[in-house]
Amino acid sequence: MIEKSQPVLGSTNRKVDADGIQRFASVIGLKAEFEHQYRELHANVWPSVLKRIEQSNIRNYSIYTMIILGENYLFSYFEYIGSDFETDMALMANDPIVQKWWNETDKCQNKIINNQPHEHWSVMEKVFFQNIK
């Protein structure tokens, strides 16, 4: 097993960037037999789910897919612009409509082997960010 290096934080990979935004990326497996269903769900995201995402101070949320060594993966990215991440995420997790949405999407996904016990999506470590204007 490859051991993970300790983070080295500097001006290009802060927890909160100089612009005050926290950026998050994560990865999870996508079950091949559910790929079409997952794509259809995200082609028509429920309006109340989109509203809750916005109310939770999340911006520029995107999900990408890729096949690596024959396995399907999803990669997500979003920016958090609020001041209390834990509370905003708890409000999202406790929203009954979001819970129903997650029930639909979770069955399409495979957890990554090395994720933390409390994680559904495995959080990716930011190594570099530079806001180029």
Sum up the structure in keywords:
five-stranded antiparallel beta sheet; Alpha-Beta Plaits; 133 residues; alpha+beta; 5 strands; 4 helices
Task: Give a structural overview.
The protein is of the alpha+beta class and 133 residues long. It has one domain: Dimeric alpha+beta barrel (Alpha-Beta Plaits). 29% of the residues lie in helices and 26% in strands. The protein is built from four helices and five strands. It has helices spanning 35-43, 47-55, 85-93, 96-106; strands at residues 22-30, 58-68, 71-80, 109-110, 122-124. Strands 1, 2, 3, 4 and 5 form a five-stranded antiparallel beta sheet that branches. A hairpin with a 2-residue loop joins strand 2 and strand 3. The longest helix has 11 residues, at 96-106. It is globular, with a radius of gyration of 16 Å.
